[in-house]
């Protein structure tokens, strides 16, 4: 398998399936496409593998899967022993709902607080819309952590955590500390070995 990713400091969408594929323990090659290149160079570099012209993309033989959530679901089916989703159907449904909400929403937070691992933590002023996003994420995290007991959203690590790992990094960067168990969850996610490996590689980027 080959996973195309974007610049690690910025590509939250690449981080999500990268965390999932690491959890499977399966061997894979990693191809980095620098983002924000001039003259449409990023798009043209991706197109030979993924016709969407976007990262991430997973190549497995002749198959190309080109969406973060689709890649994670493919990995969950291909590697059931990795338990990227829990066995319990209710936990699985709630986790998928949480991941889909992240996949489709929170536009204000994304626009005002992009994932930028190279930026030192600081206090940012957020719009009302972004604060509403933060409140919803905090509510969601606290509900899931309370229901399943933590330390991850569904108890054990899952794809839901992969989808909110970039959010945890945003909260740290922009000085957002959610109330309740959600605050400790930020620390839990950012301390996982796989996230720390990604972050170390990001810091080495030029």
Low-confidence region ranges: none
Share of residues in strands: 5-15%
CATH architecture field of the largest domain:
Up-down Bundle
* DSSP summary: helix tally: 9
Count of discrete domains:
2
Q: Round the mean pLDDT to the nearest integer and report it.
A: 95
Instruction: Report on the biggest sheet.
Output: 4 strands, mixed
Order of strands across the biggest sheet?
Answer: 2-1-3-4
Order of helices and strands: EHEHEEHHHHHHH
Computed CA radius of gyration, to the nearest angstrom: 17 Å
Query: Structural class, please?
Result: alpha+beta
Question: How does the overall form come out from the CA principal axes?
Answer: globular
Write the layout of secondary structure elements.
Elements (H helix, E strand, L loop, with lengths): L1 E5 L5 H13 L4 E5 L7 H6 L10 E4 L2 E3 L2 H11 L10 H16 L2 H6 L15 H21 L10 H15 L7 H10 L2 H11 L3
Parallel strand pairs: 1-2
Antiparallel strand pairs: 1-3, 3-4
Commentary on this structure:
This protein has about 210 residues and is an alpha+beta fold. The protein has 2 domains: about 1-80, Glutaredoxin (3-Layer(aba) Sandwich), CATH 3.40.30; about 90-195, Glutathione S-transferase Yfyf (Class Pi), Chain A, domain 2 (Up-down Bundle), CATH 1.20.1050. It is about 55% helix and about 10% strand. It is built from 9 helices and 4 strands. A hairpin with a 2-residue loop joins β3 and β4 (about 65). The protein is globular and about 45 Å long. The two termini are about 25 Å apart. The model has no long low-confidence stretch (mean pLDDT about 95).
